[in-house]
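This is your field. Pick holes in the following sequence-structure pair:
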Amino acid sequence: MNSVSSRWAVIFTCILFLIGQIVLVDPVSAQKLVTIKGVVLDGMTKNSVPNATIKLSKNRITTAKIDGKFEFSCLREDTFMITAIGYYPRLLRVHDLLTDSSKCKVLMQPAIYQLHSAEVTAKKKKTKISKALDLLSDVSHPFTYFGKEERFKRRHAKLKSNSVFFSENIYWEINRQLIEEISKLTGDDLDKCIMYCNTHIVLSPNDDEKTITNKLLLLISDYFRSTKSRNRDSLNVRG
């Protein structure tokens, strides 16, 4: 009796194994990873867009190189989003890039914002940029992460006096140079800050120089805050 039961148990196990193999054949082949290679370009100038952020499935994030080129592995059915400071985001399907190689050249549309003319009178009427910076100077946390108040003001003195912000009929794009000017970061630290801004900033066609400056300065301040918090936690773990 026991031998019969054992034999049926073995047969039942084999049947389950075969069913499992049949069921798993299609999903396994469908889950095969593919490699995507491409380059991020400015849609107007066709110049490369450096350090663009690429958001993949399952909250994975990678970045394009300084020459705009990127490479990553994903599923054929996946979608991904490319964002870059100063450009509208692009949502792309992996399948489209695999079937049409021309789409591996991802053209980004510049997010261009026209500045209103600034009016300077004998009464030293504040411009929009001045008001935006003064508004931010009332926030306590920038001083904590940029240094003392006087150091903060000195860092932005050049930005406030830069005539490009007050010229008539000009266009302003948020770019790497602006983030570098505000944050005073260099090298890998600058790249990490740019990635943080790329990932978190939300732009709108209704934005002007005041709202964009406000958003960017707050993001950079938050980046310094999160960096300081991580460093403090790391020191606590070591201690």
